[in-house]
Amino acid sequence: MLNEAVIMHPNPDVDLCVIQMGYILGRIKEGFTLKNAFMSADWRLSEASTQFVRPIEPIIMVGYPNGIWDAHNNRPIARRGLSASHCLMKWNDQRYFVIDCACFPGSSGSPVFLYEDGIYRTDSGHLTPGTRLKLLGTLWGGPTYTAEGKLIAKPIPSLLSSGSEVVPVVSVMMNLGFVIHADALDDFKPLIINLLRNENAMG
Fold it and tell me: Which of 123, 125, 144, 194 could form a disulfide with 48, with the two C-beta atoms 3.0–4.6 Å apart?
């Protein structure tokens, strides 16, 4: 619903939402410094530069894997990896691509950036010294496989009898992640515009 703090993506197959933070930020006490940065459309790849994006690109992901963070300095964890599929193409016709990066619980919702350090390509395709950081999307999940194990080494029965031990089944991450394309954020614009119009109409 538009009048709630959390706005879900209009497509239920896209695991993405927007959390309204204006009210919270407005209540921060005077004299406190905000430790955040707001990303605009300039953080996205320009239309001109998309033609130079390669099938495999260096990426960096910022988040809180397994809840790990620097509590003293209020900073998250940054992890490096590669795009495992083309970051501008739909993976299996879905609105996401695949990255080769260690993804753990707590990483969901992490922004994923194209990260070129030392030398990068300009919008015209030329190489120049420096660093480029561009938002590619948002991590929402990843593939897992199940591993069956027991505490002692003995054959696993095909069926569990009353005297059999329970065989635990756990999900194991494959160090792959699914990243929703950054352009999915544009789908929130009409929802937010309608929300603002409704609020203004109500005075």
Answer: 123
